[in-house]
Amino acid sequence: MRHFSTVKVALAFLAASTFASCDNDDKEVSPATEAEKEYRFLRVLVADEQASTLTQITPATAAIASFNTKYPLANIYPTASGRFAAVLYQNQNLVEMFDTGLESHVDHVDVKGTPKWGAITADGGKPTHFKSKDTESLIFNDNEGTLSVGNDADVHTPGAKFRVINAGLLPHHGAMAQFNNGTYAVTTTKASGANPTSVKIINKAGTEVQPIKLETGAIHGNASDGTNAVFGCFTTTANTSGSVLVVTASGEQRLIPNPTDFGAFRLANVYYAEGAKKFIGFVATKGAYLIDLTTNKITPIYAGDDAFQCKPDYAGNNLHVLTLDGKLRVYDLATGTLKKQGSVIPSTSAADTYKPILEASEKFAYVAVPSLGEVYQIQLNDFSTVAKHKVTARPVRLALLGFESSAGHGD
């Protein structure tokens, strides 16, 4: 559990004029004060486009720590436990695990040592999609069509490797989902390197347990609630209209079509918001949409062609949409209503290869701005209160880890 809804945290003021940095305590933060601290055990990880550096920010104290990575441009994904991050070097066929040292005990968080690299690694060809459930981490290796699976318990085991699952898949830009019954939904393709157009279910040994039921157009993006897996796709191989493919743990498959005026687009990013129990689909050319598995309908949350980031918050209660004009919109996923909007960062060019990256907690939105070498920490109840954390020159990856709690052992 990454969010502690029962923990009551008193309001406090953060002196943000200096960082409590591990290697320089004179770095500026603007503005000078904040009305409320972030949760004590939440962490922000940042990777750089050019520097082999992983930066950890502790927002509650503005402390910054830097760690050497094997390569630049690492993709960062939090594990379901909240303690670890998978660091994927896609082009170098390598995965490492980073340990925040934070461990949840339901009503409080223990500190289990300092932040550090784990010992376990994976070396599948072009590790790309990452999923995590309970203590399990799962990676799809595009150049091999294999899966790599690891467990939190093995992170610090010397010489440990992710286990490889070979389900007889051809290499492709694949996706997968973990079900509560221990099986996986995996994409398949008819030709090596071609877009996936179907999904089957396999067990942990890679054996098929539920066959392909439907053929679609190109599939990209997926999420799961443990019972249902939702994949963004084109409806047919003509790729002229979009749908989502819903695959249940028992093997049923069905398509939910995009809105009638959607055009030749698919929802290439799919998220599951745990707190609201909702699926969201996003594509920059059309906006953010609610995917309702009960009514089998897809309806707009934000319809526009200027959104470039769309993320549920850490607990999955709200949806944050960032547009090219620098405006942030926050939606209540329980009702679908707009809660707040306002300008939070400078405008972004649609032509930029690396645009700002957004994540959000209950209290703050975090935006890595590559052009400025900063991470903006934006207070959500007052968009004008922003702390600017100086990190590396080109921060292009961002992830939240840890726990939305300030209750430590013995507090």
In short:
This protein has 411 residues and is an all-beta fold. It is built from no helices and 36 strands.
Structure notes:
The protein is an all-beta fold and about 400 residues long. About 0% of the residues lie in helices and about 45% in strands. It is built from no helices and 36 strands. The strands form ten sheets. It has a four-stranded antiparallel sheet, with no helix packed on it. The relative contact order is 0.15. About 10% of the residues have low confidence. Keywords: Signal.
Summed over residues and divided by their number, the pLDDT gives a mean of: 92
Number of strands: 36
Strand content: over 45%
State the secondary-structure class.
mainly beta
Order of strands in the sheet with the most strands? 5-4-3-36
Major beta sheet, specifics? Answer: 4 strands, antiparallel
Could you name the key traits of this structure?
four-stranded antiparallel beta sheet; 0% helix; globular; 36 strands; 411 residues; mainly beta
List the helices and strands and how they pair.
Blueprint: E1 14-15, E2 33-34, E3 42-48, E4 53-58, E5 63-68, E6 75-78, E7 84-89, E8 94-99, E9 102-104, E10 109-111, E11 116-122, E12 127-133, E13 136-141, E14 146-151, E15 163-165, E16 176-178, E17 184-188, E18 198-202, E19 208-210, E20 219-224, E21 228-234, E22 242-248, E23 253-257, E24 269-273, E25 278-283, E26 287-292, E27 297-303, E28 307-312, E29 318-323, E30 327-332, E31 337-343, E32 357-360, E33 364-369, E34 374-379, E35 386-390, E36 395-402
Antiparallel strand pairs: 1-2, 3-4, 3-36, 4-5, 6-7, 7-8, 8-11, 9-10, 12-13, 13-14, 14-15, 16-17, 17-18, 18-19, 20-21, 21-22, 22-23, 24-25, 25-26, 26-27, 28-29, 29-30, 30-31, 32-33, 33-34, 34-35
